Amino acid sequence: MLLSFLKPHHKHAPNATHAYIRTMITLDTAAWRSGVRMTIIVVVPLLIGVLTAHLALSVMALLSALGVAFADVGGAYQNRAISMFSAAICMAVTALIATITGANPWLVTLLMFALAFFGSMLGIYGHLAGKVGFSTTLVFILVMGQPASIGVAWMRVLLFIIGAAWSLAVSLWFWPFRPFHPARQAVSGYYQAVSALLRKASHIELEQHWNEEVKKERARLQGAHDKAHHIVAGQRSQRLGAHPFNYLLLMLVLRADSIMEAVIALAEELAVARTHNYHQGEQPAFAQTMEQCAKILEQLAHTIAGNKQALRPETLERSLYTIETQEYVLRNSLPQLEKDYYALANTRKLGDPLEPKHSLVHAWLSLRLVNTRKLANLLKRMGELIGETRDLLMQSDDQEILKEMLQAGATSKGNFSCNALYAVVRERVSLFKDNLTLRSFTLRHALRLATISAAAVAIAKLLRIPDGSWIALNILFILRPDYGSTREQTVQRILGTVIGAILGMLLITALHISFLFFPVLIVLSFLCFSYQEGNNTVFILFFTTFIIIMLDLTMPEHGLVPLIRIATTLAGGGMCILASYLFWPLWERERLPQQMGRTILANRAYIASVLAAYMAGGNKQTELEAVRRASKGAHLQNVNAAAAFQRMLSEQKATENEIERLHILVTYNQRICDNVTALAAHISTRPGHDEFHQLERFSQQMKWMLLDVEDATRTGQRIAVNPPFKGMLRDVLASLSAALHQ
Question: Do 676 and 257 form a contact (C-beta atoms < 8 A)?
Fold first, then answer.
């Protein structure tokens, strides 16, 4: 028994490790493009510096190009241009100020406090403003460590302008030629995320239903959903909104929403089938069918991204035929299941009460009958949605899709209004004032970052620590609003810095000829920025190696750079840990109950909207629109709750009882949301029976019970389940079960 228990673990452990390593080092198309783009942005200034023998000056242009690239918020071109151009202006001004004031330790300390504080507070205005604040603070820290005269300061401003222009040109050069490229990539990524979730959900075991790996896919899917909706909706509000291609993208996003809900519902029904051993002999066929669906979605994603050869008609037709065949098998089994069900049910009508074992068989047949019908309906729905998506892509004008036209519709210019501008400014000022309280998490983080950064600068300047500004630089990258994320960032940065510094020293020792450094820098730059979004530790490792070799080119006599990098990282990480723990700490275990309250509220609204649609007959557009809105809110809040719980696991103050209780809350709320999604998927196939009016009373009871649960979650009180509710639930299920079999 012991060997049989251990054998599966020994068998699967190497596979799991291999899969983890493969996932960690695999680069997708977006990562390759990011690596190539950032390598061009970074390496070209260095090459010009080497060829002109002004490497120190070219480093300033490199810093500007890098800071502007870090300010890239992604998404629509217009938003990217605004954030990068704003960062370029702020960075040039900051470089001028930092160069002039860098020699005065007290003045630069005060400026560090002010810039870190206001740069962090910009986060209240959104991701774009936060990126600009981060890049501006980054440049101040880097330049203040190299004070110089006013003449050198203006030269640096000129170099910063050149570097920013170069970074903008490389990032946005094909904007006029491919105006819909970001939107296409976002919609394509949405379909790929749905495909990945379907593949994960269809291969999990019964006891691993919605395991951690699947939860990560759920989080990625939610991010892809938000990105696609944000970019497509943003383009519709701009001059591109009148273009027919943008309408096509909008329709594709709406189809992806429906497919996502169908995938979740299908996974729930498959879980029910596994729980009761339904269709046990057909499980390989189910897995093959789901794999075919996932492949179709991948093909659609590549087609949306611009690959014409990805959508092969013969492959698509074969895959759709596989789905139809599985649906036919399920529907073909319904008559025999109904015959067995009614044959057993008729024994009660003859006055012969069912024996206990017959009652169990009767219940099992009833559940299997309903589950089989639901699976067949969901497979049909999946095939219809995929077919509709294919038709959208194949029937649209190829010239519109592939060329995207240089003229993307009429430009609608709005009239400038001083009153509107004043209203916007007043709103921004009011928002800033509202956050000037210690109850604001943004203010607490801004004060923490400003205080510890200023202290690091003062210590470095007064003690004249070599390259002491790197301590503040590490603080900027490491410090997070909560303790758990800060500790995680500290570990990743220290680990990446130590390994990267050792690798840098080995490369410097091995490469005796200086001109060999440049090809190595190109490779390191590509590897570094390819993993920037995917793996933070790998990014820091290659970035540290890149910096060490670059500094060895500019200062070949300065052999202590690797050791200084390690020491400053340790100092910055230690200061961040202490600051997060001692100064206005933000604990997820204190915030998570409020987040769970919002999650329960969203689930309650979702349940109410779905039950209202059932009671209304499922035909009214207003009810269906309410279901879609509630579904979006519920899925978002559940993903937020899961992310908050993961952050809480990094906190030392969270007790085992708190972790267990909150894990149960997070898990069961997610299951509630998924089950309601499965219920919503059958609204259109709702049978017309009067028994559905009983749902009104059930809906009210559910509402009040979830209100009690929400209040108890927020306050920490205990509640008891209402016994009448359990009885009423049994009555409703019995009534609906009888109605469904009529």
Answer: no
Give every CB contact of residue 574 below 8 A, 6+ residues apart in sequence: none
Looking at the predicted structure, is the pLDDT value of residue 174 above 50? yes
pLDDT in tens, 509-533: 887 656 677 888 889 899 888 888 8
Residues with Cβ < 8 Å from 707, sequence gap 6 or more? Answer: 604
Structure tokens at 383: 């095939």
SS3 string of 217-231?
Answer: HHHHHHHHHHHHHHH
**For residues 319 and 312, is the Cβ–Cβ distance under 8 A?**
no
pLDDT tens digits along 305-349: 877 666 677 777 777 777 888 777 777 776 766 666 666 555 554
Q: Band of the pLDDT at 618, cuts 50, 70, 90?
A: low
Element spanning 599, H or E = helix 588-615
d(C-alpha 597, C-alpha 592), whole Å: 8
- Matching residue, tokens 């860098």: 102
Residue environment code for 528-548, b if the CB has 16+ CB neighbours within 10 A, otherwise e: bbbbbebbbbbbbbbbbbbbb
Contacts of 295 (CB under 8 A, 6+ apart): 195, 315, 319
DSSP annotation of 280? G
Tokens 């049994």 sit on residue: 730
Average pLDDT over residues 284-301: 82
Q: Mean pLDDT in the chain?
A: 78
Q: Where are the alpha helices (DSSP H) in 26-102?
A: 29-52, 55-70, 77-101
- Residue pair 632/256 in contact by the 8 Å Cβ criterion: no
- Amino acid letter, residue 437: T
- Phi and psi (nearest 5°) for 174? -100, 20
Predicted confidence at residue 91, as pLDDT, reads 95
Return the higher-pLDDT residue of 28 and 597. 597
- Average pLDDT, integer, range 144-162: 92
The two structure tokens encoding residue 666: 């997070």
Count of CA atoms in the C-beta half-sphere (13 A) of 216: 4
pTM over 0.85: no
Q: Residue type for 457, please?
A: V
Looking at residue 75, the DSSP 8-state letter turns out to be S
- Pick from 737, 740, 739, 7: which is nearest to 363 by CA? 737
